[in-house]
């Protein structure tokens, strides 16, 4: 575990496989768009489904504000593909099989067992502007991210 990541820090870059078959890097978005990166425990579980559907239902609002949403868990690309199709998720889901990116972002485990649920809002320069950590209030992740994106983009 590295040092704790805080608001104002440069977000660690990553390259992870997406359901599209391509490698997605955080650096691909720099200078172009805000990025909401949300780490979640597992595809197709009640809390994670609620969270993913909340982001899905506000995806157009995020896009209009100049933001991209990316979900990351340790599930395989195939599991992500099924999850995306089942709930019609329009955003990227990335597979962090060994949990390396999760470690770089210092996402804590809940009860020392369950992969944590943490959302990072990253500006166009790659600086972390907001961190929201709540294992049990899955839908608040969308609310917190949207509020921050609206502040950053100065949308009404």
Automatic annotation (TrEMBL):
Name of the top EC class for this enzyme: oxidoreductase
Location(s) in or outside the cell: Thylakoid
Catalytically driven reaction(s): a hydroperoxide + [thioredoxin]-dithiol = an alcohol + [thioredoxin]-disulfide + H2O
The Thioredoxin domain, residue ranges: 5-154
Annotated Gene Ontology cellular component terms: cytoplasm; thylakoid
Major localization listed first in the record, in broad terms: other
Any one Gene Ontology molecular-function term assigned to this protein's record: thioredoxin peroxidase activity
Residues at the active site: 48
EC annotation from Swiss-Prot or TrEMBL: 1.11.1.24
PROSITE patterns recorded: THIOREDOXIN_2
Gene3D superfamilies recorded: Glutaredoxin
Annotated keywords: Antioxidant, Disulfide bond, Oxidoreductase, Peroxidase, Redox-active center, Thylakoid, Transit peptide
InterPro entries noted in UniProt: AhpC/TSA, Peroxiredoxin_AhpC-typ, Peroxiredoxin_BCP/PrxQ, Thioredoxin-like_sf, Thioredoxin_domain
Keyword flag DNA damage: no
Gene Ontology terms describing biological process: cell redox homeostasis; cellular response to oxidative stress
Description of how the protein assembles with itself and partners: Monomer.
Function: Thiol-specific peroxidase that catalyzes the reduction of hydrogen peroxide and organic hydroperoxides to water and alcohols, respectively. Plays a role in cell protection against oxidative stress by detoxifying peroxides and as sensor of hydrogen peroxide-mediated signaling events.
Family: Belongs to the peroxiredoxin family. BCP/PrxQ subfamily.
Protein name: thioredoxin-dependent peroxiredoxin
The organism of origin for this protein: Thermosporothrix hazakensis
